[in-house]
Design a protein that fits this description.
Layout: H1 12-15, H2 23-32, H3 40-53, H4 57-65, H5 68-74, H6 89-115, H7 118-136, H8 141-152, H9 157-179, H10 184-194, E1 198-199, H11 207-212, E2 219-220, H12 222-238, H13 244-252, H14 255-265, H15 272-307, H16 310-313
Helix pairs in contact: 3-4, 3-7, 6-7, 9-10, 9-12, 9-15, 12-14, 12-15, 13-15
Length: about 325
């Protein structure tokens, strides 16, 4: 389970990080940072770029000298294709693209009246919509780089067994939190969602959980095991740089993690907001447990290195 820490590693940002994801706070943040519309600067940037890449002479001339305000006014329909921000930007992008294709067909004639050609209209609208998605549903470059790194790293069976034990502990902890909720409706929805992660019978494949179980541990379904193993692979790549919020956001940007989570909760009859809440709390709690373990190992090693100088170690040994 080891992950190497550099000597100047600072755990303050992680250990002081907020532990809860509050839907009320999230809605307040959304109100403070609403979805952004296209601007003249973005339209001009898109036109300049398309003018450099465009093969057609007529289309190039339009992108060089076409009226930016007219383009901006004609493409206002794109903003209506956006949905609210979620912790799963990849899914939000896919839904927005689906709405965009329908809206584009409905507004094609009015756009062509400005651009002068169907080809220029298509290039312009697709490029502007990509800019709009990048602004409102950003996916960090780090998340994309980590995807490639994780594909090369595989977990041994022993490590997977420990990860499944940690995953069961995460689910059990979230269940305990649910039972302390005052709202019976929220409690019921969360418990419904968490039920899809566990199996009722003991699993002989989970050796560590079986060995330590005295009746209170949780056995995970196979999809749940795969889900927490994905979280482990992601956690290993970002121990030194990420907070809990950043880690859960990065996991939400992963198509593989999100798809697996959706498969597990597809039959769960609770709101999408509640599923998102469970996902975030699960990812953050898993990361907190893993970081706590790694910090303990790092501090223990640091104390050992400080108290026992390497040169004095051999002198302390007595041969009888």
């Amino acid at each position: 389970m080891a992950a190497q820490f550099c000597k100047n590693f600072n755990v303050d940002d992680i250990l002081r990080d907020e532990d809860e994801f509050d839907l009320t706070k999230q809605k307040e943040l959304e109100a403070e940072h609403p979805l952004q519309k296209l601007t003249l600067q973005q339209v001009d940037k898109a036109c300049v770029l398309l003018a450099e890449k465009c093969v057609s002479t007529d289309a190039r001339h339009f992108f060089q000298s076409g009226s930016r305000p007219a383009i901006l006014e004609t493409t206002t329909f794109m903003f209506n294709c956006l949905g609210k921000r979620t912790k799963f930007p990849t899914t939000a992008r896919e839904k927005a693209w689906s709405a965009f294709h329908v809206a584009y067909q409905q507004n094609m004639l009015s756009i062509k009246a400005v651009t002068g050609s169907a080809q220029a209209s298509m290039w312009l609208c697709f490029h502007l919509f990509e800019l709009l998605l990048d602004v409102n549903y950003p996916i960090t470059p780090q998340a994309q780089e980590n995807e490639a790194q994780e594909e090369e790293e595989s977990l041994s069976e022993n490590v997977k067994d420990v990860v499944c034990y940690i995953g069961g502990s995460v689910v059990q902890k979230l269940k305990q939190r649910c039972l302390r909720l005052k709202s019976s409706e929220e409690k019921e929805e969360k418990l419904k969602c968490l039920k899809h992660f566990v199996q009722n019978d003991e699993d002989e494949a989970s050796v560590l959980t079986t060995a330590l179980n005295r009746g209170g541990l949780v056995f995970l379904q196979q999809n749940s095991k795969d889900f927490f193993c994905l979280l482990e692979r992601k956690a290993r790549s970002v121990f030194q740089t990420n907070t809990q919020q950043e880690f859960s956001a990065m996991c939400g940007q992963s198509q593989e993690v999100f798809t697996l989570f959706q498969d597990m909760t597809s039959e769960c009859e609770v709101s999408e907001e509640m599923k998102e809440l469970i996902f975030v709390q699960m990812a953050q709690l898993f990361f907190k447990i893993r970081v706590h373990h790694e910090c303990r190992k790092f501090l223990d090693q640091h104390k050992y290195d400080t108290c026992i100088p390497a040169k004095g170690l051999r002198k302390g040994l007595k041969v009888k």
